[in-house]
Amino acid sequence: MTDFTMIKKLFHITKRNGFSRDEIQTIKNNFGELPQVFIDYYLELGKDERLNHTQDSLIKPEQLQYFKHNEYLLRESTCLCLGNP
């Protein structure tokens, strides 16, 4: 499990606020294997609105099915950010 202690401390997060394993499985069904840190983040912090939807948005599992490329992780206010340019 990835350690997100620093992020939690900076954002005063005291409890898990992530997506379920079933929601993560939906992503795996569409894209295959995922990096462990991606899975850990979505499970632990993926639903925290203050952290993930203030300026740029973390794409929610149910939205990932609409993307054709598995490089999309973050939707910026002006464009999509690619993990592998």
Describe the structure.
The protein is of the alpha+beta class and 85 residues long. 41% of the residues lie in helices and 11% in strands. The chain contains 5 helices and 3 strands, in the order ααααβαββ. It has helices spanning 5-10, 21-31, 36-45, 49-52, 61-64, and strands at 57-58, 72-75, 80-82. The protein has a 3-stranded antiparallel sheet with strand order 1-2-3, with no helix packed on it. Strand 2 and strand 3 (80-82) form a beta hairpin. The protein is globular. The chain starts with a helix and ends with a strand. The model is unreliable at 78-85 (pLDDT under 50).
> Numbering strands along the chain, what is their spatial order in the largest sheet?
1-2-3
Distance between the termini: 27 Å
Measured by DSSP, the beta-strand proportion falls in 5-15%
Helix content: 40-55%
Report the total helices. 5
SSE order in H/E notation? HHHHEHEE
Low-confidence spans: pLDDT under 50, at least 5 residues? 78-85
Number of strands: 3
CA radius of gyration is 13 Å
Derived from helix and strand composition plus strand pairing, the structural class reads: alpha+beta
What characterizes the major β-sheet?
3 strands, antiparallel
